[in-house]
Amino acid sequence: MIELPAELRRLLQERIVCFFATAMPDGSPQLTRTWVDTDRTFVLINNVEAHQKVRNVQRDPRVMIQYR
């Protein structure tokens, strides 16, 4: 776990939409447009247990978040 930089915490306190990228089982990217937030310690990603991105993260926790 890394500490979130102050500038990132400030940005995440706004309700922003971003792209959340995970890896499919075959290694191809899977992109989801979603909102992110923070509890001042963690980046919070909107998800539903049945979504592909959740299964992907459970299998491979490497992700990318792109804003703008």
Q: What is the secondary structure topology, with strand pairs?
A:
Layout: H1 6-12, E1 16-23, E2 29-38, E3 43-45, H2 52-59, E4 64-66
Gross morphology: globular
The major pleated sheet works out as: 4 strands, antiparallel
CATH topology: Pnp Oxidase, Chain A
Summing up helix and strand content along with how strands pair, one would put the structural category as alpha+beta
What is the CATH level 1 assignment?
Answer: Mainly Beta
Rg, Å, rounded? 12 Å
Distance between the termini: 24 Å
Write out the CATH superfamily name: Electron Transport, Fmn-binding Protein, Chain A
How much helix is in the residues? 10-25%
Q: In terms of per-residue confidence, which ranges show pLDDT below 50 for 5 or more consecutive residues?
A: none
How would you characterize the overall build of this protein?
It is a single chain. 22% of the residues lie in helices and 35% in strands. It contains 2 helices and 4 strands; from the N terminus they run αβββαβ. It has helices at 6-12, 52-59; strands at residues 16-23, 29-38, 43-45, 64-66. It is globular, with a radius of gyration of 12 Å. The mean pLDDT is 86.
